[in-house]
Amino acid sequence: MCQGINPSDSSNAAQSAPRGMRYHIALVGRRNAGKSSLLNMLANQSISIVSDIKGTTTDAVAKAYELQPLGPVTFYDTAGIDDEGELGAMRINATRKVLCRADMALLITDEQGLGHADMALLDDMLAMAIPILVVFNKADICSPKAEDIAFCQAKQLPFIAVSATTGLAANALKQLLVELAPAEYKQEPLLAGDLYQAGDIILCVVPIDTAAPKGRLILPQVQILREALDNHAMAMVVKESELATALDAFSVPPKLIISDAQVIKQVAAITPESIPLTTFSTIFARFKGDLPVLVQGAEQLDHLQDGDHILISEACSHNVQEEDIGRVKLPQWIQTYSGKRLSFSVTSGHDFPDNLEQFALVLHCGACMFNRTEMLRRIRECQRRQVPITNYGVAISKLQGVLPRILAPFHPKNG
Q1: Bigger pLDDT: 182 or 27?
Q2: pLDDT at 69
């Protein structure tokens, strides 16, 4: 067994880590190349159905796993890229959607070697800048072809020969997955930890309205609080109605105030200019995306015209409430701010339209349920199509006239 690799996925970390915080690894390839068998080998469990019948895997199968020292990952077993017919085309499209959120792809091939379908998929993944590991499966019955090895070497593609049937090179494969992961995934993720130090007071302002989940905080708030605890800061939570009282009670002012964007105008009016102030969504704009690009996208709010179409893009599906931020409040605020006649469309989950050019602006949620790769791909695709994109928190701060202030904590002079 390779040192540092935990063969068991029973740890709490693998199952409880937020989906958006896991490293996503897609297993792709032709039908019957052994993708499902390989997933079972990696997880040491029978996760995917294995059969000699082509097309057994239809929808992507996700498996959470603890791959140390990398940490929590999610493996995705996908449908064959050579599937046939109308239904097969839908399965291939589903596989490509998985690739849009993949941090790494394992291209699985078998004794047939790299065929036309494999080569076409390789070209697509290289264009998407997805890190690729070519896995020559069924090495117990056939060694990789010399021309395929030469191809991988010429393209500088890492490769390995394994056998999902016998377990040949299973530990070496896991070790290679860890080694090939980008450096940022081997480090502790940073939310707001660079904006304060151990012993500092961090004050979080969390409104409780009809859209707030009953009996709990939302994921970004929980993650900020946990990071503060890990960094030995003193994290406190108040509603906006108690903020003034809380500030009066402090003998030493907070080092940082982090507010829900929906009440940022009220919070900014109460908070002295000497106290750094930002929003949860702005922190996530940096953590999950590209903050400068999203700030630039918010400037489009000043240039909207009558008839413009705006896309509201949500990372998760939820029951729409009366005070829903994306579907109710933001459209109302934008209409009022711009004074223009606008139309809005909404997408949820991993759905993202191909015809982005029809939109004058894309407004994205904080993407707490996405991994950073998927959010960055959406941002880059909008840039490629020359469609401005911003996120809820940055847009709200712009609409409320406090954007420069909530960006100030991220300026280099503030550390």
Answers
A1: 27
A2: 84
pLDDT at residue 100, rounded to an integer? 86
211 three-class SS: coil
Q: Count CA atoms within 13 Å of residue 248 on its CB side.
A: 5
Q: Are 218 and 225 in contact (CB under 8 A)?
A: no
Q: Average pLDDT over the chain, rounded to whole? A: 88
Place of tokens 């699985």: 108
pLDDT at 269 over 90: yes
Helix (H, G, I), strand (E, B) or coil at 324: coil
Return the pLDDT at 318.
Answer: 57
Identify the bridge partners of residue 204 per DSSP, sorted by sequence position: 237, 258
Task: Quote the crossing angle between the two packed helices 330-338 and 392-399, to the nearest 10°.
Answer: 40
Closest residue by Cα to residue 204 from 251, 291, 266, 267: 267
Q: Which of 182, 368, 408 is nearest to 275 (CA)?
A: 408
Q: 291-347: per-residue pLDDT in tens?
A: 999 999 999 999 999 999 999 999 876 566 667 888 899 999 999 999 999 999 999
Mean of the pLDDT values across residues 220-241? 96
369: left (phi over 0), alpha (psi -120 to 50) or beta: alpha
What is the C-alpha separation between 277 and 95, in angstroms, rounded? Answer: 42
d(CA 372, CA 286): 10
Give 16's pLDDT tier (boundaries 50, 70, 90).
low
Q: Which residue type, as a one-letter code, is found at position 190?
A: L
Distance of alpha carbon 12 from alpha carbon 241, whole angstroms: 37
3-state class (DSSP) for residue 150: helix
Task: Say which DSSP state 321 is in.
Answer: P
CA–CA–CA angle 24, 25, 27 (5° rounding) = 145
If phi > 0 it is left, if psi is from -120 to 50 it is alpha, else beta; for residue 129 that is left
Residue with token string 């953590």: 287
The encoded tokens of residue 42 equal 């990696």
DSSP string, 67-105: ETTTEEEEEEE---TT--HHHHHHHHHHHHHHHTT-SEE
